[in-house]
Amino acid sequence: MGGLAGLLVLVLDVIAIVDVVKSAAPTNQKALWVILILVLPVIGMVLYFLIGKKQ
Fold first, then answer.
1. How far is CA 16 from the centre of its chain?
2. Are 46 and 33 within 8 A, CB to CB?
3. Any idea what the Cα angle at residue 20 is, between residues 18 and 21, rounded to 5°?
């Protein structure tokens, strides 16, 4: 990824990570979500907003 698409993914990942940290989830779940978002930026972010945010 490069250019504008990469920047967009970076911004959305930062938003997702901030949302994870501010959530009321247990610390171990927060850590797992942050690791998933960092290792798989696009897939991790999408999964968090579809699955993780509902918990």
1. 4
2. no
3. 65
With vertex at residue 49, the alpha carbon angle to CA 43 and CA 54, rounded to the nearest 5 degrees, is 135
Q: Which residues of 28-46 are buried (b: 16+ CB within 10 A; e: fewer)?
A: eebeebbebbeeebeebbe
Quick: pLDDT tens for 9-46: 999 999 999 999 999 999 999 999 999 999 999 999 99
User: What is the residue type of 1?
Assistant: M
Token pair, residue 24, equals 């009321």
- Six-digit token string for 22: 């501010």
Q: Where are the domains of the chain?
A: 3-54
